[in-house]
Amino acid sequence: MTETLENQLNQDIARLYQEADDYNVKITVGEEPNEQTFFAHSVILRARSPFFRAALSHKWRNTQDSEDKITFSKPNIHPKIFRIILKYLYTGTVSFYQKNNDYTSLLIAADELALTSLVDHIQDHIINEDIKWLQRQLVQ
């Protein structure tokens, strides 16, 4: 008999995001004074993102630091935006509860990281839930 214990699997992977134990990737995002370093697991990044799958391959892999961690830099992505994306990569969830969400930056970053499901989800959310934001963007 085969049973699916998907919820427990999702919770276990989400715990990796929350605790960042045994990480092997350090990703620095943003620019000073808003630069921030995030810790991640290459296996999660590669499984969830075609961009990271290529970027973390042996052909493209960036240097490793003195702690033998893979280092990666994305100065064009704000830490606030990358936090949302990293949570999505680990949990498959994204929250749109904050007022004045920066959908444009989130869409650009998700597209750059080849997260087509996230891009589609953000676009659907804007169209179905936040039409006023979309109208403001069209007026500007």
Automatic annotation (TrEMBL):
* Alphabetical list of Pfam families matching this protein: BTB (PF00651)
Q: Extract the InterPro entries matched here.
A: BTB-POZ/Galectin-3-binding (IPR051481), BTB/POZ_dom (IPR000210), SKP1/BTB/POZ_sf (IPR011333)
What the entry lists under PROSITE patterns is as follows: BTB
Q: BTB domain: from which residue to which, for each copy?
A: 23-98
In its UniProt entry, what is this protein called? 2922_t:CDS:1
